[in-house]
Amino acid sequence: MGGGNANGLLQALSSVLGPCGFLTGEALRSRATSLWNSQPMSALAMARPKTTSEVSTVLRLCHEASQQVVVVGGGTGPVAGAEPTGDRIAISLERMNQIENIDPINASCVVQAGTSLQTVQEEAASHLMLFPLDLGARGSCTIGGNISTNAGGINVLRYGSMRGLVLGLEAVLPDGTIVSSMNKLLKNNAGFDLKQLFIGTEGTLGVVTRAVLRLFPQQPHRQTALIGLRGFDQVTQLLQLAKLKFGTMLSAYEVMWQSYLEEQLRFFNRRSPFVDRHAFYVIIETEGADSKLNETVITDTLEFAFNENIITDAVIAKSEQERRGIWDLRETLEPFLSDKPSFGYDVGVPIGDMPAYVKLVETNLTRRWPNSICYTMGHIADGNLHFFVKPGLKEALREDCDEDVYGALETFGGTISAEHGIGYEKRDWLLRTCSTEEIAMMRSLKNALDPKGILNPGCVFE
Ligand SMILES: Cc1cc2nc3c(=O)[nH]c(=O)nc-3n(C[C@H](O)[C@H](O)[C@H](O)COP(=O)(O)OP(=O)(O)OC[C@H]3O[C@@H](n4cnc5c(N)ncnc54)[C@H](O)[C@@H]3O)c2cc1C
């Protein structure tokens, strides 16, 4: 849209939202673009609505002016979906950060979309309830972002991804229409399940403003173990055993390749909890109501696995501090992001194919960049791997690395995104994961709900 119109729109937005609700100039520039991009935010302006009705007004005005907008949550998404360019208006839900209601009887809560994940977890815990979505960015990411990306994280194995944790939601369409689907029921087949349109669609179809989330009884006793294994066959054997022995008590099963854990130890100058090195490291977490049972099951199972030659060594956390120490080895990303260039990946591969896939990626990368190192870990029980590639060459290009990492997926029927989404970073690869018909249907939905293409334009597909 032209400058004259833009000025009129900016004035209208400013008067609707007031000084706290509308940022331009230095107030905007002093913010980083996202957690992954430290450049000053370059949007035309940032709208910070405080209510759904204000979100609706902002979108209606932008729609009338054909002004493009980008929805911004916590900015922790690694695919640049929430990074507005200079000609777009950012809409941040950061002032819509209230937990409206916790209902232990119905096992649900009503939250505003700008609330951080950690706030929801803590508020649920204060009612002896659990909101089970959990991931390393818990303190910064928002419920709106979690919904829009269908976030996964470390407890998918037990509780599913965000899609399964949303009972209902409220969203504002690009023309300002408010669609309230604040269902609280576990079963509701009345008509189309419209909330699904806004889960995992990365803010391309509407702005999520509020949600009804599922809660679970809090399990007061947790056991966390770090385990050393000599091969990937043992990793899958242990997973089978853990599923069998722990049943629904098993909440996390995370794997780190040797190079990943050793880089963490090196970077933070930490001592390994083990005397020997191991090819793979697994974090197992169980949770339950009975502390004795929880403890006995994990120690007996690990002892059995040791005697059966499945595991080589194991440590069990004896305090919350030790537990945090184990999780830090998996969740802290600093060692992998400190030297540039470094390229991060989120892919999905059937679990049985993981060793062959990782080998192929490493071979491709070494052929391209002889000094490259690939750090691998993942939520492997969900078929999800994450890589950090350090090419060992300053001029190395992300596009070349994509070719090696995503290109290798085709042999194994994998996906270019298990949980982070497509954003702007992966959209060129979407055609190699989805069929032409699937993409055409996505476009039809986008055109139906956003005919002017003002909302997160170019995100997921052009
Ligand atoms: C240390 C670390 C660990 C992580 N671990 C995991 C993990 O285990 N699993 C996982 O899935 N992800 C993980 N992530 C990625 C990220 O945290 C998730 O994708 C998260 O769900 C993004 O939430 P956000 O609020 O930061 O969204 P943003 O990054 O701000 O936005 C993400 C997308 O959602 C859209 N959006 C945001 N809010 C709304 C809204 N209210 N309505 C409509 N659209 C909206 C944006 O436009 C953008 O397209 C991790 C990130 C970090 C930094």
What does this structure look like?
The chain has 462 residues and is α+β, with helices and mostly antiparallel strands. It folds into four domains: 3-92, 2-Layer Sandwich (Uridine Diphospho-n-acetylenolpyruvylglucosamine Reductase, domain 2), CATH 3.30.43.10; 99-217, Uridine Diphospho-n-acetylenolpyruvylglucosamine Reductase, domain 3, CATH 3.30.465.10; 221-331, Alpha-Beta Plaits, CATH 3.30.70.2190; 339-422, 2-Layer Sandwich (Alpha-Beta Plaits), CATH 3.30.70.2740. Helix content is 34%, strand content 21%. The chain has 15 helices and 18 strands. The strands form four sheets. Strands 15-12-14-13-17-18-16 form a seven-stranded antiparallel sheet, with helices on both faces. β17 and β18 form a beta hairpin. α1 (3-21) runs antiparallel to α3 and α7 packs antiparallel against α9. The protein is globular. The relative contact order is 0.11. The model has no long low-confidence stretch (mean pLDDT 96). Bound molecules: flavin-adenine dinucleotide. Flavin-adenine dinucleotide binds next to β3, α5 and β10. Its cofactor is FAD. One of its GO terms (molecular function) is FAD binding. InterPro entries: FAD-bd_oxidored_4_C, FAD-bd_PCMH, FAD-bd_PCMH-like_sf, FAD-bd_PCMH_sub2, FAD-linked_Oxase-like_C, FAD-oxidored/transferase_4, Oxid_FAD_bind_N, Vanillyl_alc_oxidase_C-sub2. Residues 36-218 form the FAD-binding PCMH-type domain.
